[in-house]
Amino acid sequence: MARFLTIGERIHVISPVIRKALQERDPEPIIARAREQIEAGAHYLDVNIGPAEKDGEELMPWVVKLLQSEFPNTPLCLDTANTKAIEAGLKVYDPKPGKAIINSADAGSRIGMLEVAAEYGAMVIGLCAKEGIPRDNEERIAYCTEILDKAIAVGLNPEDILFDPLFVVVKGMQEKQQEVLDAVRQISEMGLKTTGGLSNVSNGCPKEIRGLIEAVFCSMAIQCGLSSAIINPLNKLLMDVIKTAEVIKGWNLYCDSYLDL
Amino acid sequence: MAYKKPVQKFTGKIREVTLGENLKLGGESVLPFYSFDGDTGHKPALGMEIWDVYPESWPATIVNELGDRAQKPAEWAKYVEEKYNPDFICLRLVGANQDAGDKSPEECALVAKQVAEAVNLPLVIAGCDSNEKNGKIFTKVAEALPEKNIAFLSAVEGNYKEVGAAVGLAYGNIVVAESSVDLNLAKQLNILLMQLGVKPEKMLMNPGCSAVGYGFEYVVTTLDRIRLAALDQNDTTLQMPIIMPVSFETWKVKESVATEEDVPEWGNQEERGIAVEISTAVGVLTAGANAVILRHPRSLQVLREFINCLI
């Protein structure tokens, strides 16, 4: 069994520092955020440039080249709804450290991202949604199957898709949490890989308990089969919980210092 | 539809470690001898054991063949190199044991130096029965023979700091991390040595050996699980090549030690010893060992043939 895959979420246009750095093409703040996430143990770095309707085709390659020249061993997850920007990023992406991940395709207007992934030999996150949040698991699984069918039709290996059942906020959608975990289980039982944004779950909660909520949800989801997550790797509790869950699942051989690695 | 042969692909790969000038160990990305799955890396290496003292307990044919050379380790080593040409020589410092002469670390270093100067083959140094004394012996030997890629058997939980610091850090030789058939400890010890600063390319591991019939199944499953963690889980802390002192174990069990006089129904004593040595070596090689240490020339010959037939 392969290890749990972590995708660091902290290069995101929603952060004012990153937004400014992206706008001004200022490398330093972006590199600093990348470095701290890699040092904290993130496997992939997500690069969210927002819709970037005006300059996405130029911005994405710039940031891909910047990060890859600074951190040649870290693969990237390209995150924007702008297909042209994704393609421009993939054109300059060096797959040596690992295939790029497109974040994301869905069963609706963004289903074309599957073709892009197939064309460029990339992986892709398949959001089990069409418009907004899926109503229930019947919808989730229907969208999952739609994505899978389309992927096979365009020649994309199902192994290259991380299915995201769409994690939802606990504060306000508490009654949906078990359903989401069950979706992870159902998708995993189909032999497919899964992922999800953990910060969705804790959104709006007090800062001091967000890390805990994410860690507990992640460990419960791992038991349901979750194979990767989009996370804040600076959340040490979460990273330790993931490492411990990997040991309990038998994905990593136990030794006394396993948390140090 | 045509049959498509399934291939077991792993993400991990065993590191390449160089013993002496250019004996490369490891490098495989498949299970041992699985050449049909991919790259089996470098051929497993076969070493021969010699002692720093007269090998009274050894099989008669070896002792007779050695004659006076058995008194002089450097000549013994040279003879082994010329006559049998193993991949490496293992000098075992039995004379440092209290009941076998209690040689000082300085005396051990002198013998090791003489042996190193007498042969061109890569050298492995094995200590005595005391881990505490081995810390001191290895420090002196490594100091006398710095930066030679000599492997030292072994660093254990009790002395890894001293051995790691001297052998690996100060004098640039190779540390063998030894655990007693405990895969969690095997991993832990590797991590501790790396945290100390020893480079993984200067490390080998001995996860614990026994003779066939003496908890050997557990030795084999431990090797299996270590290799699967290294290859399948890409566990970089377990990707060091494995060296196993097979002869140290097999020639002391009763099947090898009991005389024909005592157990006539077991047949010729030396033949038995060879059989135990060969079966043990074959067992650990097929479970993941990259190098084994042998005593009997016939074992060396059979093992060489065995490896060449499979790869």
From TrEMBL, chain A:
Name of the featured protein: 5-methyltetrahydrofolate:corrinoid/iron-sulfur protein co-methyltransferase
Keywords associated with the record: Cobalamin, Cobalt, Metal-binding, Methyltransferase, Transferase
Any one annotated GO CC term: cytosol
Gene: acsE_1
EC number of the protein: 2.1.1.258
Family of this protein: Belongs to the vitamin-B12 dependent methionine synthase family.
Keyword Transferase on entry: yes
GO biological process: homocysteine metabolic process; methylation; tetrahydrofolate metabolic process
A single GO molecular function term of this UniProt record: methyltetrahydrofolate:corrinoid/iron-sulfur protein methyltransferase activity
Pfam family, one: Pterin_bind
Domain Pterin-binding: 4-249
First-tier enzyme category under EC: transferase
Key word Repeat present: no
